[in-house]
Predict the structure.
Amino acid sequence: MNGDTLYAIGDLARRTGLTVKTVRFYSDAGIVPPTDRSPAGYRLYGTDAVARLDLVRTLRDLGLDLPTIRKVVDREISLPEVAAAHADALEVQIRVLRLRRAVLTAVARCGSTPEELDLMHKLAKLSEDERQHLIDDFLGSVFDGLEDHPAFAAVTRSLTPELPDNPEAEQVEAWVELAELFQDPGFRSTMQGMARELAVNRAPDDRTGLPRILAEAVRAQVVPALAAGTDPASPEAEPIVTALAAHYAHIRGLPDDDSLRRHLLSRMESMNDPRRDRYLFLLAVINGWPAPESLAPILDWTARALRARLPR
């Protein structure tokens, strides 16, 4: 035996701030073995035991299990390796806790029922792959057969929600509502109709669902009329309807007649689905985009103006 100072288990406990029971536990586990025994058979520990116990306590505070701690103190694996692995594990736990906090915050804010809480929790905790499957199923249904359209990639990208790893409560709420909207057959049908129209016109405005030239014309012509309080059935609205119909006739390569105007009216009415506006709003919340402009007032005014000039 060398001349190093030896400590009885009680002395070691006092030096490390641990209980005798805890020191004995680590000793029995082989993590801090005794250096020697006293004549009476009591365990004695060298000065290195103090450093080992300090390291053990730090690693336990970080949440490492005993087998891993033993490998570290015995230098079977390096501390940096353990730290890196544990940091990765903690990152996963942190994401889970943040998601749970977001769900609970959303529930507290909107007063969800137990059934809604269960649904919210299930949808929120879907893995990234599971969320992507849900999204792909919806967009695949909407754009089925249009994969070769030149605007396909841009339009689908602009309609794809991307829930961040650490979502805020409002993003969780928006994701759950959007996931439910994905499964609405009526909404899918509306979006499919929009997609078919985009394919025909071949000049889409990414998220409005209107051909770009028509979308710009509608905004330019109708927004001032709305601001001025122009009645869509009034004579003052006639030049606006004529201009919009001419734009649409040019896009479609068809004459401006009642048939074309009925088609344009149908287009405006189908686009004026409140679920479409809601989809774009939820999408912006999830993706952290600016809130989109609602086209509902513009579409409603245009539809009323067209309807007023068509024979019944």
